[in-house]
Amino acid sequence: MVRILCSILFFTITCINLSAQSFSAKQYHIPANATYMKGEMIVKLKPAYRNAMRANSIALPSYEAIAEKIQAKAKPLFPNHKIAERATNQFGEKMVDISTIYSIQFDSTISVQTAINMLWTEDVYEFVEPRFVYHSFLTPNDVNPNANFNTFTLTDIRAFQAW
């Protein structure tokens, strides 16, 4: 009898825990050692919300309410990007649509994580993340990189400026 009661108790606690996890709001946590721009984040709208895209805003009531609170301004990251005419490329790979990616600048006194979590609660975005700052870990040390290539190759792709 005690075994049955313990089993029922365990099952009930497990069910309550699982249901609480499934109803909790999504939360974004910035990685511990990440470097990012204060007062800026990157978002990508889901394709279903393409009609809300504007040149200097996102025309969604949920976004506009949050934007007012955090004094946000949105602008497309790739304003000249044209939507692909086909869904896949010649290799059958799905085409990527970068036209729905926005840079959102907001009051820098508000924590980036707080601002992200305000937007992330809405099921409108494919991703919402900080504007990360990337650092190189290595510096090329080839004394004469053109010796192994045609001299124009690295110059044409501006490799020296990147280094």
- The tally of strands reads 4
**Sheet bearing the most strands, described?**
4 strands, antiparallel
What is the CA–CA distance across the termini? 72 Å
Strand order of the largest sheet: 2-3-1-4
What is the arithmetic mean of pLDDT?
81
* Multimeric organization: single chain
Name the structural class: alpha+beta
| Beta-strand proportion | 15-25%
What is the overall silhouette? extended
Low-confidence stretches: 18-24
Write down the secondary-structure element order: HEHEEHEHH
Tally of DSSP helical segments: 5
> Could you estimate the helical fraction of the residues in percent?
25-40%
Instruction: State Rg.
Output: 24 Å
Structure description:
By secondary structure, the protein is α+β, with helices and mostly antiparallel strands. 31% of the residues lie in helices and 17% in strands. It has a 4-stranded antiparallel β-sheet with strand order 2-3-1-4, with helices on one face. It is extended. The model is unreliable at 18-24 (pLDDT under 50).
Descriptors:
163 residues, alpha+beta, 4-stranded antiparallel sheet, 5 helices, 17% strand
Outline the fold blueprint.
Layout: H1 2-23, E1 36-45, H2 61-70, E2 73-76, E3 101-105, H3 112-120, E4 125-132, H4 151-156, H5 159-162
Antiparallel strand pairs: 1-3, 1-4, 2-3
